[in-house]
Amino acid sequence: MASTANDEAAQRHDEPALLAVDDLHVEFDTYGGVVKAVRGVSFSVRPGKTLAIVGESGCGKSVTVQSIMGLIPMPPGRITRGTAMLDGIDVIRQKIVDGEDIRGSRIGMIFQDPMSSMNPTMTVGDQIAETLEVHRGYTRKQAYSRAVELLGMTHIPEPADRAKQYPFAFSGGMLQRAIIAMAIACEPDILIADEPTTALDVTIQAQILDLLDELQATTGMAIVLITHNLGVVARLADDVAVMYAGQIVEKGSAEELFHECAHPYTLGLRAAMPGNDPTREQGLQAIEGTPPDMFDPPRGCAYFARCPHAMRLCEQNRPERFEVAPHHYSSCWLQHPASPLEVPGLYRGAVA
C-alpha cells in the first residue's frame, strides 16, 4: 500500500506545472545599501492544486509574488535574475499576451489588507464589473450582472443590494469576500492569495478558507497561498515551500512538512505552532534570535546564527539541496550522509 501511495504521489508531481518560477532574484536600492530580498527562489504550482509559501514576516514571500505580478516599484526594486513561466511565456518580462494583460485575466490576486484594496469612491459592484469590462470586453450591463453573481458565489447575502454599496459599508470579512469575487471574476488559471486571512478574526478566517477551497473545487484554478500561519497551511495546502531570508529552505507536500520536516527552521516553526495535544510536555517554543541582515546576507546557511544544531560547516558553506524523499527537498547540511548529528524530530531521509 505504501508503494502505491508513493507511485500516486509521483504521478501527481509529474503533471506539467501551470506556473514554474526558476532562480528568482530581487533586490532593492536603499539609502543604506542594496537589500537582497529574494535570492534564488524556485517553485511550481500545478493545475487545481494549492502551493503554500510560508515563513516569518520579512522573509521575502510577498516580494516574490509581487515581483512576478510586476507590482514592485522599479526603481528602487529590480529583478536581477530568474523566470516565471506560464504556458511557455515568461510573465516577468511579458505581461501583455495577445493584447491582454495577464494580470487580472489569467492570474488573479488577493492582497493582504482588505480595507485598503478597493477604491473607496466606487461601489463594490462597479469595481468588480470594471474588471470584466477591461479584460473580457463585457458591456456594462453584462459586467454588472456578472458582478452580482460573483458576490453571490462568495456567499455575500443580498448581493444585488450589496453591489450598490461602497466599501466602507462592508465588514472586514465581507470586504475580503468582495475582493475574492473581483480576483476570480475573469476565471483566472492561478489565484495568488497574499495573507488572505491576516486582518480577520478566527471565525471569519475559517469561512474565507472554506470559500477558497470551494471555489477551487468549482473552477479548477491553482492557488499560491502566502502565509505565516501553519494552521492555514494544514487546512488548505497540497504542497509547501518554506522560505527563510529570501530563500526556500524546504519543499514538499503538506503532510511531509508536518510529519517529516527535514529542516531545523521548519522544525522550529512547527514547535511554535499552538496545538490541542494534551500529551504535549512543553508549551510554545520560540525561535531564538532574529533573521539575518539582508544588506549583507550570510555566506553560508542563513539560519546558522539561530539554529540550535548548527555545525562549523554551516557558517561559510551554503547548503546543498538534498532530496530526502521523492519531491521532498531540504537545504540543510544535516541531511548530508556524513552528518554526525541526529536531531530529535528531524527527518533524515538522505541517510535512511
Topology:
Blueprint: H1 2-13, E1 19-30, E2 33-45, E3 50-54, H2 61-68, E4 77-86, E5 89-90, E6 96-97, E7 100-101, E8 107-110, H3 124-136, H4 140-153, H5 159-162, H6 172-183, E9 190-194, H7 202-219, E10 222-227, H8 230-236, E11 239-244, E12 247-253, H9 254-259, H10 264-271, H11 312-316, E13 322-325, E14 328-330
Parallel strand pairs: 3-10, 3-11, 8-9, 9-10
Antiparallel strand pairs: 1-2, 1-4, 4-5, 6-7, 11-12, 12-14, 13-14
Describe, in plain words, how this protein is organized in 3D.
The chain is α/β, with parallel strands linked by helices and 352 residues long. It has a domain at 115-187. The chain has helices at 2-13, 61-68, 124-136, 140-153, 159-162, 172-183, 202-219, 230-236, 254-259, 264-271, 312-316; strands at 19-30, 33-45, 50-54, 77-86, 89-90, 96-97, 100-101, 107-110, 190-194, 222-227, 239-244, 247-253, 322-325, 328-330. The strands form three sheets. It has an eight-stranded mixed β-sheet, sandwiched between helices. Strands 2-1-4-5 form a four-stranded antiparallel β-sheet, with helices on one face. Helix 3 packs parallel to helix 6 (172-183), helix 4 (140-153) crosses helix 6 (172-183) and helix 6 (172-183) packs parallel to helix 7 (202-219). The relative contact order is 0.13.
